[in-house]
Design a protein that fits this description.
By secondary structure, this protein is mainly alpha-helical. The protein has a domain of 81 residues. The protein is built from 5 helices and 2 strands, in the order H-E-H-H-E-H-H. It has a two-stranded parallel sheet. The longest helix has 25 residues.
Length: 120
Amino acid sequence: STKKQTITANSTTVAEWYALDQPSRDAMWLNKIARSFMLPEQRPTEIYTDNINSQLLLSKKGGKSANRWLNLRYFFVKDTVAQGHVEIHRVNTKRNAADGFTKALAKDQFKIFTELIGIC
């Protein structure tokens, strides 16, 4: 589901990390539902981000002290990745279909967007 964030993020990295939190939780919930129906678990669920700093935080190769207050969301996403439930992949900003729903695009980017979502 799409909804506005209820918390103001102090950086784009924090905002992107908040955006990774909910799909990670949804993946865990869907896996529980699948198990309850005795369906084979489809692991890992792939989640895409165009934010490099989010991936650096995930791989322990980066992260500023300004991001320390991510706390529970940070550790939840890190744990779901460590347990193999989800994988976070980088997607090039030009190939990020979600941008077409959240920002104005130039004509050439709009054409790519419509192709990505299967309209053209």
